[in-house]
Multidrug export protein MepA (Clostridium frigidicarnis), 443 residues
Amino acid sequence: MERKLEKKNLRKKFLKYTIPSVCAMWVYSLYTIIDGIFVGRFVGPTALASVNLSMPFVNFIFASSMLFSTGASTIIAIYLGKKDYKKANETFTLNLISIIIFSLIILIFSLLNLEKLALFLGATPTTLEMVKEYLKIIISFNGFFIVSYCLEVIVKTDGFPYFAIIGVCLSALTNIFLDYIFVVKLNLGVAGAAYATGISQVIACIFFLVHFLRKNSTLSFVKVTFDFGILKRILSIGVPDCITEASTGVVLFMFNQIILRHLGENGIVTYSIISYVNTLVLMTMIGITQGMQPLSSYYYGKEDTDTIKKLLKMSFKTVAVVSAFVFIVVIGFSENIVNVFIKGADAELFNYSVWSFKIFSTSFLVVGYNILISGFFASIEKPTKAIIISISRGLVTIVLSLFTMTALFNDTGIWMATLVSELLCIIISFGILKLNPLKELLN
């Protein structure tokens, strides 16, 4: 009876953190998806392709935030588990100072190399000016992107997961409203979409900062000396999740280049739709993982091996159910989803997009397991194992799969490559997990 009660309590805690995490990641996904819908419908396919070509840089910004936020969240949770509030507050403050400095470096370097960056991302003569216009605005707001996401993650670690979802929902509603005003009413095109996204991040940033200035927050800002040891610890833990998010941008970049070569700009329109939905699926899996991580880190701090085992099994079951549900929905409503982005497009482009989308969607069945295992290793301060999985998934297997499948099956192979890549990585992920019993991992 006592064991059942413990399991029920753990499930409640898991859901308490996972549901807000998933919802928050959905909302973050909606920033780019909403931009895509407004741009695709009210500006045109060329503008949609331009925004998609800019997306690897947006992924880079979010990856930068994950580099800091995951590590800081893990370390803070471990200190809270040990009741060491002084160290938790010092880590929190040092992390925020570091990301502000980092965002300023991104701002200066990117603006000085704007055209080179646009061309590197694959801008064509047709799309170059739109890509530059969109990027310039996003770059200007990058600090708010990084700080707001990082604070949203740490708010959950602070014990306020539902406050986090309120903040991101407020930001999302701002984004939708401003997209309508700037893109539809004022006809500002891709610049309007970029301004809407940037301003919405400012709102989120202010909202979360206010939380940490209130008395009911466990964490607070304190005076700190710059400790490179803590910063190194934060970054080493954050690298796996950073690679997971950055890999989305790398994959998007690689797909864009190969699609331009094989299919032209119409192919970019097709992949734009696929990548928006793929981002939503990836963010769902990252959300489940982030729901597990604070609890896993907390029990790691308490050295409670049995609870961590139960938590990991619970997370696997959640990924399995969600993966199957997402796949069924996508297969059943492919035409409707494609229609949201390119309503009124010519029949050939529409039908090709639906066909490609269905092939690509098979990867949704397996992607969550790799993200979860990598995130688990990060949560118990085993970053090397997490990095191996993240690099395998984000760089090695996808490069091998994309070039091999394209060579064998032409454009069909492009849409099959992600499934093959994730399957190869699953072998690596479960192999590492099986070779490292949990008790050994916690030593």
